[in-house]
Amino acid sequence: MLHGTMCVNQYGHLEIGGCDTVELANQFGTPLYVYDVELIRKRARSFVGAFQKAGMPGQVAYASKAFSSLAILQVINEEGLALDVVSGGELYTAMMAGFPPEKIHFHGNNKSPAEIEMALDYRVGCFVVDNFYELDILDQLCREKNVKVNILLRVTPGIEAHTHDYILTGQEDSKFGFDLNSGQAKHALDTALSSSFNVLGIHCHIGSQIFETTGFLLAIDKLFTHITQWKEEFQYEPTVVNVGGGFGIRYTETDAPLEPEDYVSAILTEVKKQAAENHITLPEVWIEPGRSLVGDAGTTLYSIGSTKEVIGVRKYVAVDGGMSDNIRPALYQAKYEALVANKAIHSDKEVVSIAGKACESGDMLIWNIPLAKTQPGDILAVFCTGAYGYSMASNYNRLPRPAVVFVENGQATLVVERESYQDIIKLDRPLYEVVKK
């Protein structure tokens, strides 16, 4: 259960990054996202190191949808990674963080003309083009601005990863990308080659939370079948093949992900093999880890409040957050592990279910987990919440979004402030002035 820099300190408290989580909760309040920065750096270096070990050029681009903030993007830049953004907001955050625009890849299945123009003005390194609508707009804007940009064509290879139905993105019936099997991708390539673009290559993404390499290898095989045909028909060879991300992490003991270098090694070996067998010049390989960089580095701290025991059924323990700061259990039926941070070594346990405070019966974070016996004011630590927690947080029930703290080498740094009630209403406009009493 404990991972990264986690340990139990002399007081029997959970410690992360050399910081006592109980003290963090007291200092910064709860709910609180705590990120183990050393673990993020370790994951980043594992991905980069796998390319170096293989002696192959490539890029590791952080998929910032997993968690985007000024501070995390600065850490990612320090580690030498590229960046994947999917909206004007994510792009703006990257620019305000000082991220080099030439290392930014702009994704998205419905980029607006304003977003595309924004990315052109910032001179991002690459557009990952998703559809013909985008091809047309991008070509028009490039001609107006007299610029030529790098693009990848996103394709759907028809490969279904072994993952949750809601996060399958590589199969044919998907909102993303040009379909390979119908000839749509071929038509897109023909169009792109005659437009204002430098067509670097192709991109695919087969899903998320993937624990094996088979899906990636099948996708690469499918891609090279078409690359070989395109070489014959268009005399075109890609200089980049981007196989996306989706590398899994351990949420509970039933999860068994591979190490970052294992995924990368298998991918690079297959690309080398396919390029050699099909007489294709070896392309650069790009990947896009998101969850696997920050997911298990994040822990959410909650304060325990009320309890309710349904005799003969279960005991509910409520915390001061829930689906407003972690929608994944309600959306994906995601499972998590947890412990009582101020009673990390207690052996006297009971089975409880962790309820959130939102006014929804479905606001349940964890069902039937053995925990040290709790009382109001105890601190619950829920593990592996670093991906799609803060980034999908909401103000449902007008709950303020939590603060975010980075911990590293015994130092805690507040990197996102907690929202206040004033923040929640700052964009509201009343119908009439209220007389304050």
From TrEMBL:
Pyridoxal 5'-phosphate binds at residues 246, 288-291, 388. Substrate binds at residues 291, 328, 332, 360, 388. The active site is at 359 (proton donor). Pfam families: Orn_Arg_deC_N, Orn_DAP_Arg_deC. Residues 40-294 form the Orn/DAP/Arg decarboxylase 2 N-terminal domain. It is an enzyme of class 4 (lyase). It comes from the Bacteria. GO terms for molecular function: diaminopimelate decarboxylase activity; pyridoxal phosphate binding. Residues 33-386 form the Orn/DAP/Arg decarboxylase 2 C-terminal domain. Belongs to the Orn/Lys/Arg decarboxylase class-II family. LysA subfamily. This is Diaminopimelate decarboxylase. The gene is lysA.
